[in-house]
Design brief:
alpha/beta; 5-stranded mixed sheet; disordered N terminus; 15 helices
Length: 388
């Protein structure tokens, strides 16, 4: 009954969105990374503006951190699009790359508004500090027609510390007031709010009357970038709010695009529950819009638990390339398992789901709309294994 992985194709997924990647299209499928030499953490094929040739992409890869070039991850029939990548290697001397600027320009002119917003997930100060290390951020004077904003999202170390503090708060006391006070001190819910604010920013830009396009990145483009893109798409596209669609979303934005699951889910300095934080945000949205999701937060909690326990090979290794070289786990797919379990357990299926509901849902990040994800987090009180 199990499959090695969810059958996934970028071409098929964009076809579902209404974008046909054929001759004459404004976007095209590039297979320049078919042997993983351009970018080891990217999939073999990805989508870029048709105006940019494969011959230009190595220069872009050399200019972007970890060679993670800006690529298309979601497209709207109305013209707005979401791209993702990593920070440019600007450095202290304000280095430039004509090919990188051309790729961003080619994406910008495809937006109905002829504008592209670059959303840097990091705090501004952190982005400046990264210039000393050879990284940095785009200059609006070099990337004409683009606006650069900073979203103040915490890094993996802050998220790890926050989660550990949350765990300590839930373990320390069963009395409501002291426990909730400690939960507040952990800042976990503050960080969830920040992520929802970032998703709200993307949704408003893409759905604005101007139909803007957005380029999202952080430092390496595999943690905060994955969180923000996946959350925004969850709000923008009702397909991702179905059980199968959510699995496709995780496959596309997390597994195919090189989130470092092995490093993040084990103990150590590289460990951080950023994927769990994304699932927490998804659970917040499911609670805010109870009829918009085909699945319940118990479905999300099952994914969270399995990612931490590691029974399946789905979340093994740090990239698609590594999973192909050294497959791990039982060889079964978590997605196939969830499909089987959902058919037998009604607790995973939302009886309030209305497929005819609104296409776009708008995140509500205000404090009174964000609460502790009881279905998952309170299991920690009962000795749930902490693998982070």
């Amino acid at each position: 009954m199990c499959h090695v992985q969810l059958p996934f194709s970028f071409e098929a997924e964009f076809r579902r969105q209404g974008l046909l990647l054929r001759e004459g299209s404004a976007w095209r499928l590039s297979c320049v990374n078919s042997d993983y030499t351009l970018c080891p953490s990217y999939p073999p094929a990805f989508v870029v503006p048709a105006a940019v040739s494969d011959a230009e992409l190595p220069a872009v890869a050399a200019f972007r951190e970890k060679a993670r070039i800006p690529v298309l991850c979601w497209w709207s029939r109305d013209g707005g699009a979401i791209l993702r990548g990593s920070q440019p290697r600007v450095g202290c001397f304000s280095a430039r790359c004509a090919e990188d600027e051309e790729l961003v320009r080619a994406a910008r002119v495809l937006a109905p508004s002829n504008s592209l917003h670059i959303l840097d997930c990091r705090p501004y100060l952190n982005s400046v500090v990264n210039e000393v290390k050879g990284g940095g951020f785009e200059s609006e004077s070099c990337y004409k027609g683009c606006t650069v904003d900073f979203l103040q999202l915490p890094n993996i170390h802050e998220v790890r510390t926050s989660f550990q503090s949350l765990y300590d708060a839930l373990s320390a006391s069963n009395t409501p007031l002291p426990m909730m006070s400690r939960v507040a001190e952990s800042r976990w819910l503050d960080y969830v709010q920040l992520l929802l604010c970032g998703a709200l920013r993307v949704v408003r830009l893409v759905c604005s009357p101007l139909r803007c396009s957005v380029l999202v990145h952080c430092s390496d483009g595999w943690d905060r970038t994955a969180q923000l893109c996946a959350l925004a798409e969850l709000c923008l596209d009702p397909y991702y709010r179905t059980a199968r669609g959510f699995c496709v979303l995780v496959e596309k934005e997390w597994l195919q695009m090189g989130h470092k699951f092995e490093d993040r889910l084990r103990r150590g300095d590289e460990a951080s529950p950023v994927f769990l934080q994304f699932l927490d945000c998804a659970a917040q949205l499911a609670r805010q819009y109870p009829a918009a999701f085909q699945f319940t937060d118990a479905f999300l909690a099952s994914i969270a638990e399995e990612s931490m326990v590691g029974r399946f090979g789905t979340f093994a290794c740090n990239s698609r390339r590594e999973r192909e070289v050294q497959p791990r786990g039982c060889g079964c797919s978590l997605w196939a398992h969830l499909h089987h379990v959902a058919r037998a357990r009604t607790a995973l299926v939302n009886c309030l789901y209305d497929p005819a509901g609104p296409r776009v849902i708008v995140p509500m990040p205000e404090p009174h709309h964000v609460t502790l994800w009881n279905t998952f987090h309170l299991r920690l009180l009962n000795g749930h294994p902490n693998n982070v």
